[in-house]
């Protein structure tokens, strides 16, 4: 969450760079994989945990797997976590 909250240029999320995508991969690929396989499901017990899972499964894959269908493979799981918050 620190990387997300430290970014003051929201435009980076909509017009990323190869360097930013590489930083996401370096720092969060393992987090994405754990969230996608359910290893982090216990985080769903709190709102902050749900938000972390949603970011890991919805935003990070767009940087990790840009331009491929894998970018959206975990979207259903992210929506499920969003439903918990709703």
Keywords:
5 helices; 86 residues; Methane Monooxygenase Hydroxylase, Chain G, domain 1; globular; mainly alpha; 66% helix
Describe what you observe in this structure.
This protein is an all-alpha fold. The chain has a single domain, classed as Up-down Bundle (Methane Monooxygenase Hydroxylase, Chain G, domain 1), CATH 1.20.58. Helix content is 66%, strand content 0%. It has helices spanning 2-6, 11-14, 18-36, 47-64, 75-85. The two termini are 20 Å apart. 16% of the residues are buried.
List the helices and strands and how they pair.
Elements: H1 2-6, H2 11-14, H3 18-36, H4 47-64, H5 75-85
Helix pairs in contact: 3-4, 4-5
What is the CATH architecture annotation? Answer: Up-down Bundle
| Inertia-based shape | globular
Instruction: Give unreliable regions as ranges.
Output: none
Elements, N to C (H/E): HHHHH
CATH top level is: Mainly Alpha
Could you say which structural class the secondary elements and strand pairing correspond to? mainly alpha
What kind of sheet is the major sheet? none
Query: Distance between the terminal alpha carbons, to the nearest Å?
Result: 20 Å
| Cα-atom radius of gyration | 12 Å
Q: Work out the strand percent.
A: under 5%
């Amino acid at each position: 969450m620190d990387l997300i909250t430290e970014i003051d240029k929201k435009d980076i999320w909509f017009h990323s760079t190869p360097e930013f995508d590489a930083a996401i991969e370096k720092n969060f690929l393992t987090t994405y994989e754990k969230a996608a396989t359910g290893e982090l499901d216990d985080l769903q017990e709190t709102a902050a945990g749900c938000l972390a899972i949603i970011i890991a499964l919805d935003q990070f894959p767009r940087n990790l797997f840009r331009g491929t269908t894998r970018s959206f493979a975990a979207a259903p799981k992210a929506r499920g976590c969003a439903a918990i918050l709703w």
